[in-house]
Amino acid sequence: MRRLSSLLFVAVFALGVLLVFTHATPSSADELDELNKQINELTTALNNSKAATAPLESQLKSMQAQLAAIKGQINAIEADIVVKRKTIDAGYENLAKQEKILAETVRDYYIKSYYNSPLLIFLSSTSASEITQTLAYQKAATDQDKLILTNIALTIQTLEIKKRELEQEQDRLSVAKANLDEQSAKLDKIVGEAKTYQATLSSQIAQLSAKQQQLVAQKLASLNIPRSAGTSARGCSDDRGVDPGFSPRLAFFTYGAPHRNGLNQYGAWGRAKKGQNAEQILQAYYPNMSLKTDYNQDIQISTTTGWSGSIENYVKRIYEVPDSWTDNDLAVLKAQAVAARTYALNVTANGAKQICTSESCQVFKDQEKGGNWNAAVEATKGWVLMDGGNPGFTQYASTHGGYILNLGKFDGDGGNPTSFAELNERAFDKESPWFYCDWGARSQYGNTAWLKSEEVADIANVILLARKDGSLGKHLYQPDKPNPEGTDTWDAARVRQELGSTALTSVSDISVTADFNSGKTTNVVINGQSFPADEFKNWFNLRAPANLQIVGPLYNVEKK
Predict the structure, then answer these.
(1) What would the pLDDT profile of 257-276 be if each residue is shown by its tens digit?
(2) Which of residues 344, 379, 394 is at a domain's end?
(3) Contact predicate 532/499, CB 8 Å
């Protein structure tokens, strides 16, 4: 218990220190500078909180095991007390039955003591042998009475001792249970508060980072991220087999694109190859929606490009998936037709609004697609996924990278993978060209996204410097482009100079950890220094040269 109290004191002190961090309101005209400052203050607070909470969580797990063992002992003691109580109660019940025996035995003992005196026996006996026999008999009877009296007295004494010990044991047990419950509640409260505090900081950091990402929107747009499996856009590439002309080299590979919500087009194709039909595919990606098969087919849809017609004629002009995906009775095409029909009805409010014709909405052309696609549309006429009483918001994308993020689950065979190798092997969308690849390219290095060791070290240094002084963020953009704030961008040498002795000059060791339950990278570890995945990705996207980007929440590093 003393160990638990000490731990609670340390946790309370650490939490009190962390709570002094507050979310500052921008007061400078330089909004970006203020945002960088806020982000780094929040990141520092979050890292400090996690550092303070980590040993507490480790202790909590250990103590929870100890508490469980103590509770088990208490349960055993309680059970033993019940048995003891029953034994004592049974002893008192038996003693009550012996009260009459006791009274009669005491009376007989005294009577026999009087009438069996040697003088009376001598006077009443007729011979010496009779006297001897009588005395022997009376002695035996008296001894028997003494034994009965002694046993009863000892029984009473034993029961009274056991009763007192039981009452004392119950008192100690009550105190121990109360103390245990109190300490356990305190510990749970502290860890819970720390977790809530960390979640709040993470949310604030994410919101600020989203605003900061407006500054790299143009860079991100240059990637030409494909949202539809029917597009011929290059998107990203797998540079593992391409030599950029230097070594060692590093590249960050993203799983899937872009939003990873709803129907996974390449994942649906993988499911169809495994024998799943359209209904099973739709259930997998939209489990909270119900399929209605007789929705109004006459609702009129109009596009922002001037086309209008019935919902069924509109869906025949959708170009989202290849017409060649005909596995298992057009399962993918049917599922896509239902998702596209539902999406159009949802975003147009059943035809009341217009819908755009690009990948921002749906890939639409004035002429019917025909072929297998038209057959799938005809086979699912009137099929709509309902969310309550209305068509649902059925987002879909070409490639999820093995995870359905809005559902927080793995999209592949079997249970959750435990490694990137398992993920690559078992994901349903593993055949997508955008399943695992690096985004962006530099023409001088074979049109690849490979980075030099010192370039990755520079990104790590930028993060460390921003943590040290958030106001320096305006100098930490990519050095091969004009500074977006109109000031000077510090190159790698200047960053090392400002950072001092802790600066990295190269990367000798790098690894990535991931949560394979939810499908998100958790940390990037460079030369033993750990960086939270979101923090590393945000600074990578701001600092990395050309249009090199880490696109999603799940990414890995390749080394050659």
Answers:
(1) 878 999 999 999 999 999 99
(2) 394
(3) no
Q: How many domains does the chain have?
A: 3
Q: What is the dihedral of CA 412, 413, 419, 422, to 10 degrees?
A: -110
User: Does one domain contain both 373 and 452?
Assistant: no
Q: Is the pLDDT of residue 113 over 60?
A: no
Helical axes 453-468 vs 31-115, angle rounded to 10°: 70
Same domain, 475 and 506: yes
The C-alpha atoms of residue 190 and residue 19 are separated, in whole angstroms, by: 13
Task: Give SS3 for 529.
Answer: strand
Q: Taking the C-alpha atoms of 26, 29, 32 and 36 in order, what is their torsion angle to the nearest 10 degrees?
A: -50
Whether 477 is covered by a domain: the verdict is: yes
CATH number of domain containing 170: 1.10.287
- Residues 182, 321, single domain; the answer is no
List beta partners, residue 523. 513, 532
Q: Is residue 36 part of a domain?
A: yes
Distance in angstroms (rounded) separating the CA atoms of residues 524 and 380: 46
Q: How far is CA 149 from CA 87, 91, 92, 155, 386, in A?
A: 22, 16, 16, 10, 87
Chosen domain end from 185, 214, 243: 214
pTM surpassing 0.70?
no
User: What are 380's two structure tokens?
Assistant: 């699912």
Q: Which amino acid, residue 278?
A: A
Structural contact between residues 519 and 553, judged by C-beta atoms closer than 8 angstroms: yes
What is the spatial distance between Cα 332 and Cα 338, in angstroms, rounded to a whole number?
Answer: 10
Within a domain: 486: yes
Q: What is the mean pLDDT of residues 220-241?
A: 87
Output 114 or 242, whichever has higher pLDDT. 242
First to last CA, the chain: 53
Query: Domain range for residue 380?
Result: 263-394
Contact present, 430 and 296 (Cβ < 8 Å): no
Query: At 327, which amino acid appears?
Result: D
Tokens 């007295």 correspond to what residue?
153
Distances (CA, A) of 530 to 121, 255, 517, 524: 104, 21, 21, 6
Residues 389 and 455 in one domain: no
Do residue 67 and residue 203 come from a single domain?
yes
Under the banding of pLDDT at 50, 70 and 90, the label for residue 204 is low
Q: What is the pLDDT of residue 472?
A: 86
Quote the CA–CA distance of 289 and 525 in Å, as a whole number: 41
Together in a domain, 243 and 315: no
181 and 321 part of one domain: no
Examine the domain organization and report whether 71 and 134 are in the same domain: yes
Give the least confident one: 179-193, 199-213, 242-256: 199-213
Is 427 among the domain residues? no
What distance in Å separates the CA atoms of residue 552 and residue 546, rounded to the nearest whole number? 18
pLDDT above 60: residue 203: no
DSSP 473: G
pLDDT 10s digits, 309-351 = 999 999 999 999 999 999 999 999 999 999 999 999 999 999 9
Task: Report the distance separating Cα 181 and Cα 131, nearest Å.
Answer: 74
